[in-house]
Design brief:
single chain; 6-stranded mixed beta sheet; globular; 16% helix
Length: 287
C-alpha cells in the first residue's frame, strides 16, 4: 500500500505558478493521499473549487475534506443566490472506501502580529490490506513551538481517546431511526499521522510524538505511541528534507505510524522531482 502526504500550497510552485496538474501527477500512484493547504474559491488560486478539481482526477476513489478556514466571501454569491464560502484546509483521498470521517479544529492563538490561521485535523477510518487504520491529514501552526505544542497535545489526545469516543455514531439504536447509521465496526486501533507539522526532528514537539532520546540509545517510545516512518525505514535524521526554512533545507512533513504497524513499513522516501508546491511529497509504503 502506497501512502503520500503533500502540502500543496494551493498548487503554487516555487516558480510562482498555480498548476494543480503538477500536484495530481505527483500523487497519482498512491492508494491513500493526504493533502494540505487545499483552497476553495480564493483569488490566489483562480476562485475555483480545488477539492472538486483534484477529486475528479481520481475516479472511483473516496474522499473527505476538512477546512480549517471557512468564511463567507463579502459581496459574492453563487448561482443559487447564497453567499459563496471561501475555505482552506486538508483533503484525504482513498482508493478504498472511507468508513467514517471526523474533523477536529486545533487550538488557535489570536495574533496582532504574525499571521495566525485556524489549523485542523481530518480523521478518516479506512479498511486497508494492512487492516483497519485511522488516517489523519493535518497541518500544524507555523507560528512557534509555544503555539504548536498545545496542538500536538490535542492530536495525541485524539489518538489516545479514539477508542473511548468511538465512531461518529455507535451503540444500540434499538431499531430506531438511527439504526442505519450506527457503525458496525469499532474504531481502528492503528493510526497514521500525515501532514505538515512545521517542526524539525530536533524539536520538543517531535519528541512529544515519538518519545524522548535516551542516553542508552534510541527513543523511549510508548507501545501505543508513534514512530517516525522515515527513521524506521533507515532514513537519516539529517536528510529527508521536504521544505526550506530561512533558505535552509528542513524536514517539516512526516508520516508518524502506530507502533503496531512498525513491521509493515517497507520504505519511505521524498519525491524531490515534484515541483508543484514549496514542499515536496513524502511517500510511505506499507506491506
Amino acid at each position: 500500500m502506497k501512502i503520500v502526504t503533500y502540502n500543496i500550497q494551493f498548487g503554487c510552485g516555487r516558480d510562482g505558478k498555480v498548476d494543480l496538474d503538477r500536484i495530481i501527477e505527483a500523487v497519482r500512484d498512491a492508494d491513500v493521499i493526504a493533502l494540505q493547504e487545499v483552497d476553495r474559491y480564493w483569488p490566489r488560486s483562480g476562485d475555483i473549487d480545488q477539492v472538486k478539481l483534484i477529486v475528479e482526477n481520481f475516479p472511483g476513489f473516496d474522499f473527505a475534506y476538512g477546512p480549517g478556514v471557512d468564511q463567507a466571501i463579502t459581496g459574492k454569491v453563487g448561482t443559487d443566490g447564497r453567499p459563496t464560502r471561501r475555505q482552506f484546509g486538508n483533503l484525504l483521498i482513498s482508493r478504498g472506501p472511507i468508513r467514517y470521517v471526523r474533523h477536529h479544529l486545533l487550538p488557535k492563538f489570536a495574533s496582532i502580529g504574525p499571521l495566525s490561521i485556524q489549523r485542523s485535523v481530518l480523521e478518516c477510518a479506512i479498511q486497508t490490506e494492512c487492516g483497519p487504520i485511522r488516517f489523519y491529514s493535518l497541518h500544524l501552526t507555523h507560528l512557534s513551538a509555544e503555539t504548536r505544542m498545545p496542538q500536538v497535545h490535542s492530536l495525541l489526545r485524539l489518538h489516545r481517546d479514539a477508542q473511548i469516543e468511538g465512531p461518529p455514531v455507535c451503540g444500540d439504536a434499538n431499531g430506531g431511526y438511527w439504526h442505519d447509521g450506527v457503525a458496525q465496526e469499532p474504531t481502528p486501533d492503528a493510526a497514521i499521522l500525515l501532514g505538515d507539522f512545521n517542526f524539525q526532528p530536533n524539536s520538543r514537539e517531535y519528541s512529544e510524538i515519538v518519545g524522548p532520546l535516551s542516553p542508552y540509545g534510541g527513543r523511549i517510545t510508548h507501545p501505543l505511541g508513534f514512530v517516525d516512518a522515515w527513521v524506521m525505514a533507515d532514513g537519516e535524521d539529517d536528510s529527508g528534507y521536504t521544505a526550506e526554512v530561512e533558505d535552509a533545507p528542513a524536514r517539516l512533513d512526516y508520516a508518524f505510524v502506530s507502533v503496531s504497524l512498525c513491521d509493515r513499513i517497507r520504505s519511505c522516501w521524498v519525491d524531490h522531482h515534484a515541483d508543484g508546491s514549496d514542499h515536496q511529497p513524502l511517500w510511505l509504503e506499507l506491506g
